[in-house]
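Reviewer comment 2.1 asked that we show a complete input and output for one of the modelled complexes. We chose the flavin-adenine dinucleotide case, as it is the one discussed in the main text.
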Amino acid sequence: MDDNQPTAAVLGGSVSGLAAATGLLRIEEFDRVTVYERQEYDDKRVDCGEAINDTTLIPLPKTPENGFVNDIDGFQIRVYDGTDRPLDAPPLAKSNVCCESGYICERPVVERRWAAELEARGVEFRTGRSVSPTDYADIVNSYDYVVDASGQPSLTLKANGNASEYTGDMVALNATVEGDFSAYRNRPRIFFEGYVGYAWAFPKSDGHANVGIGWAGDRRPADYFAALETAAERNAFPVPDRADVNIATIPRGPSLGPDRVCDPEAKVFLVGDAAGIANRYQGEGICQGIRSAYLLTELIADGNESAYPRKLYELMRSEYRLARLMRGAWVEHEDIDLLAAVTEALEGLTIDDVTRRPATVMRRVAGRPATALELISDAGMIRRVYESYTDSWEYTSRGGP
Ligand SMILES: Cc1cc2nc3c(=O)[nH]c(=O)nc-3n(C[C@H](O)[C@H](O)[C@H](O)COP(=O)(O)OP(=O)(O)OC[C@H]3O[C@@H](n4cnc5c(N)ncnc54)[C@H](O)[C@@H]3O)c2cc1C
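Response of the prediction step:
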């Protein structure tokens, strides 16, 4: 080992950590990249809907053996008139959004194969043991770079006693169930039903699917499991066995200011859920985590890693902006007919459009002047537009969900 060659530790070997290791491997001068993962890949558990909307980000052939089990055309969003409805009640609105390289995956398999590929190329994996705050301090002292991809609350914030900064604004439950999903295998379903959040049924094959439900904000049911069960009945997917249900929170980003995503002196950088960048409207976080890791490693390659907080913010800004407006469309009005009209306006757009392109979404909604007018004729919504376009909601105490 050449003493002048930098070394890197990656804390957490899930999608963001694996992407970080991939990016670090591309930097020739790195001598040693070590991934610390508390789980073993053979029985790794993930709390996730397993929809990966841009699988081009993952450097593996898109085969079932690698966990890419269902190549989808996109998603069908269905809006219903609340949860108290006859089982055969038709949706108020349906809308199809597309994604070219999207898959419903067996995510533990994707991670296992990705890790194996990296190990074969020289990345060292230390699995099966949790990194403690003491280990964390040793690791920070021993490596030239530390990428914290430990999810939320991140090891860095735990070690610094700041874990409460995560808001855990969204809570979600999921499980894999067996049933007949052949009718919508290529177009997984998302069900909006009058609460801030949604249920989903994402087929992995004709015969099994990842199903779940999530809520955002403060108004949540008293019994999460019962709420998932009744959502399953209403939306005609099998009721999961409670023992199979995972429950987790999805962190909200604005609680983490730019100064919270890196410690330039210690050369510690946070990526993915550790940095709190999952989409705060719909909870998607895999591609966001991978993109943040690639961004960081490209900056390290250029010797420009101190720009990471600013560049990450630039990368995420349009997504933050759109999420704030989309959430506003719901929470400021709480009008299911309006949500149905907005949903219909999205027909045919791509996941990228509805996640990251506020101008495209606004143009679509503007094409329905009555809907646009209703949407904007609300003080809370006007405030959201102003804050979004002056970036004044981010990292300030004013920023709500
Ligand atoms: C129910 C639910 C459904 C979701 N569905 C989707 C979806 O369909 N599509 C999507 O894009 N996103 C989805 N998300 C969000 C997505 O799962 C996360 O954004 C994503 O997992 C973030 O990846 P990450 O690698 O940053 O963190 P994580 O996936 O949280 O990975 C962190 C890793 O660090 C390891 N680790 C943690 N602490 C330590 C420690 N002390 N020592 C060593 N290792 C440690 C963990 O074992 C884990 O492997 C969903 C989230 C939930 C809760």
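The first helix runs from residue 15 to 25. We note this here for comparison with the apo prediction described in Section 3.2.
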